[in-house]
Amino acid sequence: MKRVALIGAFCVAGALVPTAFAASTPKTVTLEVTSVGVSVVSHDKAPKGASRGDTIVYHDKLLNAVAQFGEAKGADVGVDHGTMTFTSAHAARFQGSATLPDGTLTLNGKVTAVASNLLTIPVTGGTGAFVGATGVLVIGPGSKRALNVYRLTIAAGNVA
Q1: For FRET with 105, which of 43, 59, 121, 151 sits at 20 to 30 Å CA-CA?
Q2: Domain 26-154, what architecture?
């Protein structure tokens, strides 16, 4: 009888293992928003021009670049803000966040210039549907309006 109970316990445990792994399998999500500048404040320390210690503080409105979050393309879906701090004349770090309908995303790390005048910033966490999010924000060219594409990995149980 103990043997039957033990075999049954292993069968039940075996049936639960795939479910547990499926629930924890991360998923990738791409979000596309247009960032519209609300305010930009630059602090240029000596020497004049981009140099270590200079900062730029951004505040932006976010509009859907595609239909998402249950809203149409062009809908106002959030805000972002952050500070870019130059570590040299040609290198910077960014610290900030984006607030969207499903939660917030934390942006923190090295700003990297890539092809076609794009910049990338690491996504290092979040709240709501974005808890534990990792990935990258790709910022398109533009001084007043720019396409922001978030390429994220999030827990499968989150709804983003």
Answers
A1: 43
A2: Beta Barrel (2.40)
